Amino acid sequence: MRKQNKTLAFVLALSLVVGSVATFGWEKTNSNVKASMLKLQDGAEATAAPTAVTGETVSTEVASADPSASADPSASQTPTEVASADPSASVDPSVSANPSVSANPNASADPSASADPSASADPSASANPSASANPSASVNPSGSPSATPVGTPEVGNKVTNGNFQYQITKLATNDTAGEVSVATVATGAVNKTSLTVPKTITYADGTYKVTAIADYAFKNAPLLKSVTIQSNVKTIGGYAFQKLKYLEDVNLGQGVTTIGKYAFGGCSSIRKIVIPSKVTTINTKAFNNCTKLKAFMVESKKITTIGTKVFNKTKSTRYFVVPSGKKAKYKKLLTATGISYKIYTY
């Protein structure tokens, strides 16, 4: 019995020793595991720190910061915990250091967002010549020719203005007027019964004096009854008003110096005519066949030439009124034409 008691006591003591040893071994082993986990956690926090600086949501989703991952024994001893510290999760360039996530110029410092020349300093936006200083927009010389009349002014050019078509005989300058002659009656005026030849016209930003009436100028105005010629006209060309049978009222401008041959020949309705003060020459047959023309009022004291048959076939009772002091001179000139006449002075 005593022997059995000793045996039982030995067994009990041995169990206590074995239990102590087992407990010590487990605690030591558990301590080692905890130490390993702490190291793993420290490593995960160290690798996760740079991603925390970037403030990116993706980088903060690290298992070591999740309480359920650090306190759950099943998580600390499983391979998945080791995987959470895998560099591919914490330092993978595609997550925390990839320029496309935290340092990509397109996100915070991309020139296209704040300093891209195409946004604020691109010459095409603020200083591109095509936008603000392009010659084609504000000073392109091609703009000015399009604003001038068709045909750059040149001597000999014909220009339609108002009731007439004119021919340029002298170009205008900045300081002086140019000169034109009446070439013909404009298409829109050929059926008018009254026309006035102006002193000047404006063409291509220049002023032109109307200084002459060309040969045959009014031949396409058969219905004309009255014509007024203003003071810049010096010459009335040959045949200018020939055979205008309705023409009755002729007002020659004070600038006229020369009346061309046949200028009014055949104008059978004219009854009187005033020869202006500057006339020096009346050419051949100028008033020939003006069958109703009877009265000639001569204002000019400067007549030196009267052509042949100037007054032929005018009214047989014709008469001339001339300046005093010029009667003898003009009587001689008129007699040379072969007509009969009466002469008076004023």
Beta-strand residue percentage: 15-25%
Helix content: 25-40%
Poorly predicted tracts of residues: 20-30, 33-150
Count of DSSP-assigned helices: 12
Apparent shape: globular
Q: Helix-strand pattern, N to C?
A: HHHHHHHHHHHEEEEEEEEEEEEEEEHE
Query: Largest sheet at a glance?
Result: 9 strands, mixed
Q: Give the overall pLDDT as a whole number.
A: 74
Q: Decide which structural class fits the backbone.
A: alpha/beta
Intertermini distance? 195 Å
The radius of gyration computed from the alpha-carbon positions, rounded to a whole number of angstroms, is 60 Å
The tally of beta strands, per DSSP, is 16
Give an overview in words.
- The chain is an alpha/beta fold and 346 residues long.
- It contains twelve helices and 16 strands.
- The strands form three sheets. Strands 1, 2, 3, 5, 6, 8, 10, 12 and 14 form a nine-stranded mixed beta sheet that branches. A four-stranded parallel beta sheet has the order 11-13-15-16, covered by helices on one side. Strands 4-7-9 form a three-stranded parallel beta sheet, with no helix packed on it.
- The longest helix is centred in the first third of the chain and has 53 residues, at 2-54.
- The protein is globular.
- The termini are far apart.
- The model is unreliable at 20-30 and 33-150 (pLDDT under 50).
Task: Show the helix and strand layout.
Layout (H helix, E strand, L loop, with lengths): L1 H53 L12 H5 L1 H4 L2 H6 L2 H4 L2 H5 L1 H5 L13 H5 L1 H4 L2 H5 L1 H4 L19 E4 L2 E7 L7 E8 L8 E4 L2 E4 L2 E8 L12 E4 L5 E2 L12 E3 L6 E2 L12 E4 L5 E2 L12 E4 L6 E2 L12 E4 L4 H9 L6 E4 L1
Parallel strand pairs: 3-6, 4-7, 6-8, 7-9, 8-10, 10-12, 11-13, 12-14, 13-15, 15-16
Antiparallel strand pairs: 1-2, 2-3, 5-6
